[in-house]
Amino acid sequence: MTTNRNRRPLPASHRPRARGGGDEDSVHGGPRLPRQPWQGPRRTSSKPIDRKRDHAREPDVQPRFTSPQGGPVDAPVRLQKVLAEAGYGSRRTLEEWIRSGRVRVNGLVAQLGVRVSSGDRIQVDGKTLKRRAASRQRLRVLAYHKPEGEVVTRRDPDGRPTIFQRLPGIRDGRWITVGRLDLNTSGLLLVTNHGELANRLMHPSRQVDREYAVRIRGDVPEAALERLVQGVELDDGPARFEEIVESGGAGSNRWFHVLLTEGRNREVRRLWEAVGCEVSRLKRVRYGSVILGARPLPGQWRELTDDELDGLLEAAGLSPGQAPRRPGPAGRRVRREPVFKARSRRSKDGGPS
User: Which residues are catalytic?
Assistant: First the structure.
């Protein structure tokens, strides 16, 4: 096993062999890794984190729209926040929509930074947004087992199958994926109707764990593993694995479990390629507090348990009151199995199925 010295190894419940016996409270325990020179000083202030964007902060445009109904209105909020809570996408995506003129408020093209109230009429691509009262907005999060060959998009111009063709219908907003998995990557994909939750879980400042099972073709030198946990320079900046655990294998294939706290495009594959290793199979097995167990099977989904939802809300810095929840539709969920006791099935090559 190759890891940083000051970080606790992955708990037994997260390893590919004999997941029983792990202490559930230790899933997210352990001291953090020492900061690398390229990471800057660790934050010690107790003040809330100001999650800066890669682009300049949008101007705080005062409301220039008046409610067509007239009369008193509630406190205005940013337009992209309203759209995110309605399930249209992450805030960053919605900011691009506003810049491109796809959003109108009371018949006028919206500007980035505008605030809206409940009486304002919002249109996206010409369709009026039906805003629900906050008490009626119910949080739903699905754990979807994405198979290889599916794309994470609503419509594919090449006609390939998409993950949205497998998901159930929804009344409160629309489904938003928490990150992406590329065409040849399988495993756990979280899907929610809460745009703010999705945006926070994806943001690098939250440092939410993402665990992958990786099959490497050929030998892997110890020096390469050491480089991967110390830091490798990629095209979009330095990156590293928080931890690497060797997980066996057969023949010329070797399996590893790796841990990341960010989700850049194809980051796992690019890290291994940077040290001269070829990834022959990649599967996400955990995102935050949610573990991909024996269920759901590839192409199936399940609703998260209350404990899993609580873990995600805590990781995102949201309180339960900010995301009211409800159970999913009866008869549509896959039967759950205890994720901390289930043994992962092993394929013929010695890796997770």
Answer: 182
Domain extent listing, the chain:
77-131
Q: Give the span between the Cα atoms of 210 and 131, in whole angstroms.
A: 33
Paired tokens of 213? 């099972």
213 strand-pairing partners:
257, 283
Three-state SS string over the chain comes to: CEECCCCCCCCHHHCCCCCCCCCHHHCCCCCCCCCCHHHCCCCCCCCCCCCCCCCCCCCCCCCCCCCCCCCCCCCCEEHHHHHHHCCCCCHHHHHHHHHCCCEEECCEECCCCCEECCCCCEEECCEECCCCCHHHCCECEEEEEECCCCECCCCCCCCCCEHHHCCCCCCCCCCEECCCCCCCCEEEEEEECCHHHHHHHHCHHHCCCEEEEEEEECCCCHHHHHHHHHCEEECCEEECCCEEEECCCCCCEEEEEEEECCCCCCHHHHHHHHCCCEEEEEEEEEECCEECCCCCCCCCEEECCHHHHHHHHHHHCCCHHHCCECCCCCCCCCCCCCCCCCCCCECCCCCEC
Backbone angles phi, psi at 281, to 5 degrees: -160, 140
CATH architecture type of domain 77-131:
Roll (3.10)
pTM over the 0.90 mark: no
Kindly give the pairing relationship between strand 108-109 and strand 176-177: unpaired
Report strand pairing: 290-291 vs 108-109: unpaired
Residue 217 pLDDT > 50: yes
Question: Any residues with CB less than 8 A from the CB of 136 and at least 6 apart, and which?
Answer: 172
Summarize the confidence of residues 259-268 as an average pLDDT: 92
- Which pLDDT tens digit goes with each residue over 47-81? 443 444 444 444 444 433 343 344 444 578 888 88
